[in-house]
Amino acid sequence: MEWFLKVVKSFSFEGRARRKEYWMFVLFVVIIGFVLGFFDSLLGIYSPKAEIGLLSGLFALAILIQHIAVGVRRLHDTGRSGWWLLIVLIPFVGPIIVLVLMALEGRQGDNQYGPDPKAA
Question: What is the pTM of this model?
């Protein structure tokens, strides 16, 4: 939970994020999304047409900037610019490429985006 809170408190696009920080954040976002989706359907505020409920939609909007920020910092850890995150917009192949980039191990030592987060 500390990884999720660390990312939520930080709106920074600078620096580097370890794989563990990124994936723990994603894990908690998915878990919270499922729980909120359950409550959406339980309370009857799920929209089948939009395929999202009120609570889960509000959560997704609230967490959007932090999700982008941690993704950019994760790409910085691999030595890439945050602009690489836009590859996700390419249909079919883009999300797969971004998934692979997020799973790659970060570069050891300092790089142009900051010190190695594993070294600290």
Answer: 0.88
